[in-house]
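Researcher: Go.
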Amino acid sequence: MAKKAKAIVIDPNLCKGCHICISVCPHGVLEKSEVVDNRGFFLPKVVDLEACKVCQLCEMECPDFAISVASLE
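Model: Structure:
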């Protein structure tokens, strides 16, 4: 049985809006937010949690350790 994500958490204090997580996600789970944060960054947002297969590429490739994926077990 394939893994499912319970949550994807993006820490707005650590994320600088580089969007590496968006580009490495093979399932289209994340996309750029339309809203600018208080530092002027367009942070990523989760748009399809159901599509997440918990590959954790977003988590592994984030240079700022700003994203974490929790799986259902």
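Model: The radius of gyration is 12 Å.
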